[in-house]
Design a protein that fits this description.
By secondary structure, this protein is an alpha+beta fold. It has twelve helices and 27 strands. Strands 5, 6, 7, 12, 15, 16, 23, 26 and 27 form a nine-stranded mixed beta sheet that branches. Strands 17-20-18-19 form a four-stranded antiparallel beta sheet. It starts with a strand and ends with a strand.
């Protein structure tokens, strides 16, 4: 019944001859695509992380390989003659064949696609610093993009302490989606999530069997969601009375609150949890939130953007033209990318620089060959080199980007270039250098990137020329800050460029609802984004 085998020799990062011999021995008696060796998956020091990543990869190979094989076959039967590419956790895409071999690189790839699209949309709108906020039915995924680049992590942990060591966009996830369940704990405190009703059975208002209130139920009761025109098209009409009854029973009575106060408490706690996640990726890592804009997307994110501006002190929020499909757009615009790592584990003094230069060139050539084999149309090819370095005796390393290019089969690297780059990175991280201590290079990291043609966001520019008043579809009472306020409802996609909508206001469209809080104003930019700011 065995489906896959992973082979891990403790020092194969330094010399994998024995590990590869064992690999061939297993394949000789059991020919199988799902037999792999750790040095082919993660040729890096740290045997636990390498073993864990290898184990996860070979466990995924039979599942992902079968799925991609069937998908490829069905697409062919349906006449699809385009490119089947798979999003990676590093924000790039790879061929389906590479994904069959290295499925572990798809971990957390869905949220990564949203970050890629968010960074691209924000940069086009003039916001190089942005915090993407993907709020769907179950989770709230946050990532920080500084100067147009998403923060990268070298590894992540999943359940049971298993480690995935592969480059990935750094994403913080909390259980605060639209379907996250509100409940009162034993101490009498209101909690949101992590349990979620998801999309099936979904919030109480869906009428599909769940009887515990969710964030979506609270937004509906407060008038922020149109119960007669729910997004997604799955449910014809939302049951407001059922949502009220659930909120009253599970939250209102235990906390001695009225229905509306309980609903507002649910939203406030959800906002507080989201704000905490944003502070985690910004303030706690040395970034000032006032220099960043939020980019809420997913079905529910734009309902909470105003509260996040106020609670965290963000500059503004950018609501993309079609928030519900932002992650899908990320799949379309992501570049082809292959990452490699090679352990060096040597002091800089006395290092064979020529050998390092040769390794950089050889790895770059390997990546370029993979890009060419994919057959994907690319605008240009880029290479990025980075060293993991530290002072001798230190456990933790700092990433050290190298500003070099391959010319005449050489990277032109020198010890002085490496030392200067290390001191720049170390000083930026820790604020000072250490005197009279040698420097060590642990690993070389190489990224080979094929830039794909980008989606022209000008295609999203609104063509409407009417006034803002022409886009008003109705008015309704919305609960805001402890009381009802008459609020105008706008058709978001009918708003012209330059339209200015002061809060409170609600903008409705098929894939999301935008709530502009009192004291804020939304302005439509040239790409159809709604930029939400304080109304000064």
């Amino acid at each position: 019944g065995c489906e896959a085998v992973g082979i891990v020799f403790i020092n194969s990062y330094a010399n994998n001859a024995n590990e590869l011999a064992a690999l061939e021995a297993v394949r000789a008696v059991w020919p199988n695509d799902c037999v792999n060796a750790s040095s082919l998956i993660l040729p890096e020091i740290r045997e636990f992380e390498r073993a864990s990543t290898t184990a996860l990869n070979v466990c995924l190979q039979p599942v992902v390989g079968k799925y991609l094989g069937l998908l490829d076959k069905r697409l062919g039967q349906e006449g699809f003659d385009g490119e089947l590419l798979i999003v990676q956790s590093n924000g790039g895409v790879m061929s389906a064949e590479t994904a069959r071999t290295l499925p572990v690189r798809t971990a957390l790839s869905g949220p990564a696609a949203g970050v890629i699209a968010g960074a691209y949309i924000a940069a086009a709108a003039g916001f190089p610093n942005v915090i993407t906020c993907d709020m769907g039915g179950t989770s709230f995924d946050v990532a920080l993009v500084s100067e147009g680049r998403g923060a990268q992590a070298l590894q992540s942990s999943i359940d049971f302490g298993l480690v995935i060591r592969t480059p990935m966009i750094e994403i913080t996830t909390i259980g605060a989606g639209g379907g996250s369940i509100a409940w009162v704990d034993r101490g009498g405190f209101l909690q949101i999530g992590p349990e979620s009703a998801g999309s099936d059975p979904g919030p109480v208002c869906y009428g599909l069997g769940n009887d515990r209130p969710t964030v979506t139920d609270a937004n509906l009761v407060m008038g922020r969601i149109n119960g007669d025109k729910p997004i997604g098209g799955k449910i014809e009409r939302l049951d407001t009375e059922a949502a009220k009854a659930a909120i009253e029973h599970h939250v209102g009575k235990p906390l001695n609150l009225g229905i509306m106060e309980a609903a507002e408490a649910i939203v406030r706690v959800a906002n507080s949890r989201m704000a905490g996640a944003i502070r985690l990726v910004s303030i706690e890592r040395g970034h000032d939130p006032k220099n960043f804009a939020a980019m809420p997307f997913g079905g529910a994110g734009a309902l909470h953007s105003g509260a996040l501006i106020r609670e965290v002190g963000l500059d503004s929020a950018i609501v993309p033209r079609f928030p519900g499909v932002t992650s899908a757009m990320g799949c379309v615009i992501a570049d082809m990318r292959h990452d490699f790592v090679h352990t060096i584990n040597r002091p800089l003094d006395g290092l064979d620089i020529a050998a390092l230069d040769g390794e950089m060139t050889a790895t770059a050539d390997k990546g370029l060959a993979l890009l060419r084999q994919s057959g994907v149309n690319l605008d240009r090819l880029d290479m990025e080199f980075e060293l993991d370095m530290s002072y001798i005796g230190q456990t933790h390393t700092v990433p050290v980007p190298l500003q070099v290019t391959i010319e005449n089969n050489s990277a032109g690297i020198t010890a002085d270039i490496i030392r200067d780059a290390f001191e720049t990175s170390y000083r930026r991280t820790y604020g000072r250098l250490l005197d009279n201590i040698g420097v060590r290079i642990l690993s070389l990291r190489t990224a080979v990137i094929g830039r794909r043609p980008k989606f022209d966001l000008a295609a999203l520019r609104p063509t409407n020329t009417g006034s803002v008043d022409d886009t008003v579809t109705s008015e309704r009472q919305v609960w805001v800050d402890g009381g009802w306020q008459t609020t105008r409802i706008h058709d978001r996609l009918a708003l012209p460029v330059g339209a200015r909508i002061p809060g409170p206001a609600i903008l409705e469209q098929a894939d999301t609802t935008i709530f502009i809080d009192p004291g804020l104003v939304g302005v439509v930019d040239n790409f159809g984004n709604v930029i939400v700011r304080r109304n000064s």
